[in-house]
Amino acid sequence: MDGDIQAETSPEPVTQALTVEGLMAFASHSGRGVAIWDRDLRLVSINALGLQMLDVSAEEIPTGMPYADVVGVLNDRARREDEAGFWPMLPISDFESAKALVAADPDNIGRIGTTQARHVQVQRMIVDDSYMLSILTDLSKLEPQHQDAMLQQVYLETTLQNMTDGAMMVDEVGRIIACNRRLFELYEVDPDLFVHGMPAREFMALNGDLARIGTWPERERVINARTLMLTGIIAPGETVKSERRLTSGTILEVTRTSLPRGASVITVRDATESAELARQRQMFKTVLENIDEGVTLIESSGVFQLVNARMLELYGIEPGQVSEGMHVESFARQCGDLDGLTPQEVEAEVQSRVAFATSRQPGTVSRTRELGNGRTLHVSRTSLDGGGAVATYRDVTREIERTRLLAEAKSSAEEASRLKSDFLARVTHELRTPMNGVLGMAALLDRTDLTERQRHFLEVLSRSGEHMVDLIDGLLTVATQESGGVFIEPEPVCLYELCRHCVDMVRPRAQERGLGLNLQADWDKPNIVMADETRLTQIIVNLLNNAVKFTEVGRVELNLSTQQEGDKIATRIEVSDTGVGIAEEKLDEIFQKFAQVGDSLKKQRDGVGLGLSIARSLAELMGGTLSARSQLGKGSVFVLEVEFSEVPPFQNTLSA
Fold first, then answer.
1. Cβ atoms of 54 and 77 closer than 8 Å
2. pTM exceeds 0.90, yes or no
């Protein structure tokens, strides 16, 4: 055919030549340009009208050139000649993808390619599953009205396919006559299953999320509901909206607008994120309206963006008088707590509140504000990045009142304790004087001639008196401690000599009971420290006396060890015995005042349970600890651990 470019010889020349000739004959009679591509997407032939429309020569796009290279030649030429044109590159890589592309464009509207002089519409067609035809129409030669209509149709199709929302057009009988790719994505529909003119109900039955619905009746109900939204009767020009939650959790916002003659345009938008934001916003608002604190969100200009009901209640403002968008100053002037103030006081208070609310100070600022309505608020303002602030308002009126009452109760309790301690100290002091007289007279009486029976009575009297003095001394020490009258007065002390003196004090009683009493010490370690000799002696003697008292057979041992640690001397004093022992669960109780551990041991006790309590208190007053470990029937070990300071050189006369 004149002006046509014929295909080269092929393995089946007769069949192919006939086919190509027939196609070219069709092109000549149609008055359109035609390019033919084989299954490898190589150019088989293009007629003269096609070359003219593309404004290229046969040499530039020879037979056998791949489709992608032809498009490249056209675009390169347009760029060289500075033309505002392009040739649309189809997204195909092989013949099968070309078939799929044609099938996805049932109206065969095609794309627009432009050159310097004309607009060319490109339509595609698959022939006998062997060739792809590119049919070219020069829109610039059509009647203006026809040309505009063709261009608008193509532009609308391009716009439809590039929308971020899904879109479809449904005719008056419920058939889908146009839709875009995004619609398939949103409804999880395979595009290969879609047929132009498919009823909307059949399309909805293809929705991928239906597979996650268990029973067919339930699926049927979902399909019917979705179809009704697309095809139900609505007034012309009316727009209706609804939300559909897919089984995947995606929320679709479906908007349908009715067109004349019963057709409709439907857009489908993924509203999952916006719906979630709306849900969270509603939850946030619900929380704000139900918390016990007032909350406001204030712009940097001083305008309220958010005010909750509790905040209005705290300031005595009726609901509705303050709303979002109101300035802080207008709000401050409406506060009910300002009633009764002078105009000058009102103005000063208003300006103070405005200054606090609009301050640009970074971070969090808090203050307590006493309102005229009797409330006391704790107001906290936190600046936000980018300007503005969040302020919270908490009613602390009752909290402050409780704090005041607790302080008064504490003060009263402390005063009562002080009076009790004073009374106890005074009484024990008064009791001690006559008891010393009784013991003194008993000692004198012991020097006279007495019968055995009289001497026995005197021994009972002396022991009872000594016990009474010990009890009075304990009560006096407790009273002094509670009143804060016990002080530690450090002085140079030789720990070894002090421990030896304590052992000598208790030795007679140990010998009476037939017990051994030993002192073990590290002679080569430092033992001269700054300590309160009286209080330290009181602790050690108490521990030794208890050990002797509760040991029937065996021995009592005092072990002294020290360790230099910088300018401190860590001291450890252990008193161990082979006595009756204490149950492990009772070890904490023995350090409590008036503690009595075990009824079976009461007969062996002369005290009332103050000694260990006093000893531990004195140890803690020295900055140390007093602890115990024990096993029933195997004895006990009491451990005193204290850090003493070294003796300054000018005071160290004990080692001389």
1. no
2. no
